[in-house]
Design brief:
The chain is 29% helix and 22% strand. With 377 residues, it is of the alpha/beta class. The strands form three sheets. Strands 11-10-9-8-12-6-13-16-15 form a nine-stranded mixed β-sheet.
């Protein structure tokens, strides 16, 4: 009796390999999806690739170039349908046809209207065997941000909170450095690196003067920084303003922001995004998220503060919650992690389901995903 694995097991194994490669692109390839590609011939991996920083070249193009003539007659595993439209580079489906591959296995159909099944159809018309849906759930989870931007028009948003055991982010006097330990802070930098952008509110930018960069990991391509400040009343001498030409800085503000401040921040190299206001002068978070999606962002990592966290939760714009909880207690006079939400009943409260929990150093990291049905992508 042969001990050779069944074909579906082989396909799943190679697709997992492709998904690992795809994950390398998270935070680096927007507005494109993070895609991985593995080329297999006679049971052996002959080439592999993933979408490169900035979104070009695509995973398939990288792998095909590495395979060369050996790609003829091979099976190609790709985590998303090969593109079928002419953009800055030729369509990957056409490149696969030209390379003479025999079979393409993909995890997901690309919902982008420019593709949406056309890539698979181009391959089939050329006589290439096509199989879809292999590890589709894993592939969709990896590219949740891209899928959400295409389907719902906004990026995926992760809200991170680092708190005491009793849910406080600072003492009554505002002291907050450091509630969590060094290992947890390093994990936060890893999370920043896997997102397109890091977001904070204006109050946090004023109080903490953060750099919002990834440090200590040897990362070259930094996520862009977003500050949400209705009045644009941010320090012109702060770290964010001083580095706006080195690491992109976007500021979401209201229509009433003073023209002199707009001119000053644009002169420093920041990109300004005007957001309409809701009653009582608050920024329209839904409109802001749509604007960020139109700008190409797929994954945002929000680090507070309390007011912005409440606004995002209130607007149903949070897809993942990540908490880092430390073993200290600050008491009721400490500053809460989230401002009032105005929820009178439990049924009105945003609810999430636990996806992961583990110890990191002396702290606990817990990640929660939307509880109800599917996320709004």
């Amino acid at each position: 009796m042969s001990n050779a694995p069944e074909p579906d097991q082989v396909d799943a194994r190679h697709m997992r390999h492709a998904l690992v490669l795809a994950a390398r692109g998270l935070g680096n390839v927007w507005p494109n999806p993070a895609v991985g590609c593995v080329i297999v011939k006679e049971g052996r991996v002959i080439a592999r690739g993933h979408t490169q920083p900035g979104g070009r070249p695509h995973a398939e193009a990288v792998a095909l170039e590495r395979a060369g003539e050996a790609a003829r007659g091979a099976t190609v595993y790709v985590t998303l349908e090969p593109c079928a439209h002419q953009g800055k580079t030729p369509p990957c489906a056409a490149a696969l046809v030209k390379a003479g591959v025999a079979r393409v296995v993909s995890a997901l159909e690309d919902p982008d209207p420019r593709v949406a099944g056309r890539g698979h159809e181009m391959l089939r018309r050329a006589g290439i065997a096509v199989e879809t849906g292999v590890l589709a759930g894993e592939a969709a989870a990896l590219n949740r941000g891209f899928l959400m931007r295409v389907r719902a028009g906004r990026p995926m948003l992760t809200l991170k909170l680092a708190t005491s055991f009793d849910g406080r982010i600072a003492t009554a006097t505002g002291e907050s450095r450091w509630i969590t330990g060094e290992a947890a802070r390093r994990e936060v930098h890893l999370m920043r690196a896997r997102h397109d952008a890091v977001m904070v509110g204006g109050a946090t930018a004023r109080a903490d003067d953060p750099a919002l960069t990834v440090r200590g990991l040897g990362i070259r391509r930094q996520p862009l920084r977003i500050v949400v400040s209705r009045a644009l009343d941010l320090p012109l001498s702060g770290k964010l303003a001083a580095t706006a030409r080195d690491v992109p800085l976007w500021i979401c503000h209201g229509s009433g922001a003073p023209q002199e401040l707009r001119a000053a921040f644009e002169g420093l190299g920041a990109r300004l995004i005007e957001v309409p206001s809701r009653p009582r002068g608050m920024l329209d978070v839904g409109a802001m998220m749509q604007a960020l999606g139109e700008a190409g962002l797929t994954r945002i990592f929000c680090e507070g503060g309390a007011g912005l966290a409440a606004s995002l939760l209130g607007a149903d714009a949070v897809d993942d919650l990540v908490g880092f909880t430390a073993g200290l207690v600050l008491g009721g006079d400490g500053l809460p992690a989230i401002a009032p939400l105005g929820r009178a009943r439990l049924a009105q409260a945003p609810r999430f389901r636990l996806a992961e929990a583990r110890a990191i150093g002396g702290d606990v990291m817990h990640r929660w995903e939307r509880a109800r049905g599917e996320s709004p992508c």
